[in-house]
Design a protein that fits this description.
Distance between the termini: 33 Å
Strand content: under 5%
Mean pLDDT: 82
Largest sheet: none
Number of helices: 7
Structural class: mainly alpha
Radius of gyration: 15 Å
């Protein structure tokens, strides 16, 4: 699988994890693991998902501990880097939190071949990586 395809697939997957982490704790929101399972099958993401991610996505509502839901929200930060790498958004802020639903909505939920992507060049990726490591030392 090409690198861009894998980044795109991870970004789609992490969007669902971020949504789970932020939505479930709020009264009146719903979470349907069967719909997420269908999403995984429809987009052929089953081979991409890690065991801890599978638990975060497919556990029944109310089954995850507060610490697990909190961990799901942290997928927002690395996902913002994937969105940037795919050319679907600006570089994430280094001095403030990432807006979760701004980031989750930036990856179209359709096959990557149909998505309008302008992935960053290898030089842009290297510069971004160096910049973030320098800023977070």
């Amino acid at each position: 699988m090409q690198a861009v395809e894998r980044i795109y697939r991870r970004a789609m997957l992490w969007a669902r994890i971020v949504e789970r982490g932020f939505l479930e704790p709020h009264e009146g929101t719903w979470y349907e693991p069967a719909a997420v399972q269908a999403f995984l099958v429809e987009h052929d993401l089953g081979g991409e998902i890690e065991p801890d991610e599978r638990r975060l996505l497919l556990a029944a509502p109310g089954e995850l501990a507060e610490t697990e839901l909190h961990a799901a929200t942290w997928y927002c930060e690395p996902r913002s880097v994937l969105v940037w790498a795919l050319g679907l958004g600006d570089a994430p802020p280094h001095d403030s939190d990432v807006a979760p639903f701004d980031v989750t909505g930036r990856v179209p939920v359709r096959p990557r071949a149909e998505a309008d992507l302008s992935p960053r060049t290898e030089d842009e990726l290297r510069l971004g990586l160096r910049t973030w490591f320098t800023l977070h030392r």
